[in-house]
């Protein structure tokens, strides 16, 4: 099936290759705006666990267009002052031990001979690609965040098998995080400078959400735009008027929605962790039947506790762990 973006009226859109950092930051947003103006439809949020926060109401793409245009108004200010951080580079998208082949010999010890699983690789400016690989980072852990060498767990011999495994796992995560950062600082100073820049995370989130396809909500983009407005002086160095304007009612509504989404997503994560469901619904083969049974029973319990026919319909029609027709989101 051909994409609507290949129709004659949209053939003048820039699809790369991109020649500048500015094109990287803006092109996806321009394409999304062009698509939505021609073909955009109101949608429920794709992530069904978020729908209660939107009262199960269809969301208009016009709000997303407005926020994409807000994003485009600030992209020129997101380019780092150090031009080296805008240098285009290629980076492995999913670096972790299973994707690294190592040769071991008595003479040379361990030697990396191959990296594989490159299929989602992008060539982008350094400040966008930078960061600790997802499988190696340990953000949110106090010891890792302090960048101190993690101490070895004590009294492992006195712990139960489960406790010992948990302590060893935490130690391993902390150690990997620590050595990745310290080794990068020593061996790749430009990369280290990129992901320790105070604006690194903010720029990355703006780029990510400013180029995402319409999936029935714009809260993530709007939230990071509000943060950018608050940190505008730090982004620009001062002396540049901020083009982002949010009135008091917008800020109040967004704060209320953020609180609701945070509660919902936190509860969703707890439920998934209880039966071994990981990111994007992944589950170990040995845990699959247990996870299916857990979620079926949970749905029965929620339906039994529903106070109205409307609530039962919402549980039945928007259950996050059921199959879903995704055609409207493609």
Structural descriptors:
12 helices; two-stranded antiparallel ribbon; mainly alpha; 2 domains; disordered N terminus; 47% helix; two-stranded antiparallel sheet; 330 residues
Structural notes for this entry:
There is one protein chain. The chain has about 325 residues and is mainly alpha-helical. It has two domains: about 1-80 and about 200-250, no CATH class; about 90-195, no CATH class. It is about 45% helix and about 5% strand. It contains twelve helices and four strands, in the order H-H-E-E-E-E-H-H-H-H-H-H-H-H-H-H. It has a two-stranded antiparallel sheet. Strands 2-3 form a two-stranded antiparallel sheet. Helix 1 runs antiparallel to helix 2 (about 60-70) and helix 5 packs across helix 6 (about 190-195). The N and C termini lie close together (about 10 Å). The relative contact order is 0.11. Mean pLDDT is about 90; it is low at about 1-10.
Order of helices and strands: HHEEEEHHHHHHHHHH
Q: How many domain regions? A: 2
Strand order of the largest sheet: 1-4
Kindly name the structural category. mainly alpha
Tell me the helix content.
40-55%
Query: Sheet with the most strands?
Result: 2 strands, antiparallel
On the 0 to 100 scale, the average pLDDT is 91
Estimated radius of gyration = 23 Å
Q: Count the DSSP helices.
A: 12
Q: How many angstroms does the end-to-end distance come to?
A: 11 Å
